[in-house]
Amino acid sequence: MKIIYIASFGHVFPDSYPQVPKNKTLQYVYDVRGLIEDPGKEFWQPGTDQEVADFILTQKEIDNFISMQKPHIEQLLKTGGRFRGINLYYGCAGGYQRSVAIVEALFAWLQKNFDSKYTITKEHLTLDLCAKTYKKKMSRLKADWEKKQTP
Fold this sequence. Notes:
4 strands, alpha/beta, 45% helix
């Protein structure tokens, strides 16, 4: 059975960049940073959080991107006959919100439409790493706010 691997990653973590596959696998890397502004100013939760995902996925630019990805992926699956599988990578700044929400949405669509024909796996390569960075930033912001509240 052929494999579809879909993953999110963060551009600020160079070690997470997708590597060229050594086997017969098609690989596509998409940079989604330019689609919408980083919603981190509005939310501190990851793209797996329903409220964050709903916000991201209802943005016109994201909806259009996903709508274009679906027929593109279908075409890749039809024409990639001699390959063992397809790797799809989606990267945003930290790999915490935008790319995560997109990967979750496309993974659900892939499972619904191709699960019987392919082994489909997903991974969020920098989600935990970025979460640690966000927690540190949140702690600093909270400490700064508390200092300002003290008379």
